[in-house]
Write the structure tokens for this entry.
Amino acid sequence: MQVLSGHASRDHPRHTLMEVWIQSANRCSLRGASYRCHRGLVFRLLGILGGLSVAMDLGSGAPLEESLRRCVVAARLARLVGCSDEEVRAVIYTSLLQHLGCTASSHELARTFGDDIAAIRLAFLTDLTQPKDVIRTFVPRLAEATGQAKARVLVSAVIAGMDSAGPSATCEVARDAARRLGLQNSVQDSLFHMPTMWNGKGYPAVSGDAIPLSTRLMHVASTAVLFHLHAGLDAAVFEVSRRAGTYLDPALVAVFSPEVLGGIEDLDAYDAVLDAEPDPVRMIDRPELEAVARTFGDLVDLKTPRLLGHSSAVADLASDAAQLLGVGDPQDMRVAGHLHDVGRVGVSSRIWAKPGQLSASERDQARLHPYYTERILTRVPALAGIAVLASQHHERLDGSGYHRGVNSSQLTLPSRVLAASDCYRSQVEERPYRPAAPAGEAARRLRAEVMAGRLDEDAVAGVLDAAGHVGGVRRSRPAGLTERQIEVLRLMAQGMSNRELADRLVISRRTAEHHVQDVYLRIGVSTRAAAALFAMEHGLLDKSG
């Protein structure tokens, strides 16, 4: 349906806000994120996307869960104006995924303004229909955020305002991503119109009622929630009113009231979004979950051209290696591979595209991305099992990795496989600061990491075998011990101290300690005597075995 002048249709009368809340509270819909049925494990699509929306918050510089809160407010508005259940459903997905295409022009924004995330955020805080607001809000705040002169930012803003490539890329990417997520055509079309304005000055060049209703409702909810979280309720009401007739549909603004934002800052936004979805809720199976993960991985890789295809390549390699090694669930490995770098969206593309060495501050920012990955994925109950796995792709056995700096005792074999897969793919892909390494050289570097005690020998062997290198997976040994670990076990059984072991193997004492801890973890004991007994039981003390 279309809403004209704020009047509801005969079939879908307008409701009071209290009626909307009562209907929402009384609905009996599925609240969880995954279920078992006759087809096996299935997942609630809105639950998956609701959690992953945190990535879009990070990529657009918004407070975490702004997308979820915007979604709740948009659903309230939709019911107030009498939308049907199908229209409410479209509004929910459209408003939740408003920033789905936010990475489409990240590279260009970073190159133009110095920081794509700050530029996106300030663009939403600025009334772009008012030149005075651009000069008063966008220019000085972005200059402060990036350390540039205001005049330079102003010139860049003028040039960017004349170029429709950025908005068109955002529109097209959002629409295509929505299609890949299996969302209905109305949501795809609404997201394509995300940068439009009521007065026709946005992109694409349509105006008034020609803009999809879901988009218009999203615009009102977006403005209200944006300024409510940024500056409070009074600011939200003022900005919504001020933009009526320019950016916003005046009929929908007339319906809006402060009560629509009631409790929005305190509610559990994730559960509130699930409660707002009309029945029947949309469920997806494992292959469809993997398609969702791949879509988000591809969106992340848009942050800079040198990353294109990285996430899917890691997913394929990690899954194949896990299958060869017989460890973990290959499907989980594939999903984790697609999503391992989702936290990159929270770091400016300027850093990912920098051709030279990163400064200490830039390096610290880059190293935050596994932390962001973990934070995003733990918000999705159905993905909680792979959140730690995906976020450990830069951890190393000797504790030298990041973001947590854990060591071998806390790294499962699937985590080690994902880390080796990411390392291999990063070596064979070009980066702004170095050319791609030939496959043979990349394999040599991974084996050197094994010798240094940073990567797992079995994991690297599996990854190299999956990547087509000769001499990949080794024959199975008790507890999955590697050749180096068996050597360490023999020396442990002989009663060598960590220092003596380090001297014998010509490695650091710390690396020796990690090797010992890793052996204990793999064979399930904690003492030298028990380790020696294990070695005797399995005939590991005979070097010819």
Confidence is low (pLDDT under 50) at residues 1-32. The chain is about 60% helix and 0% strand.
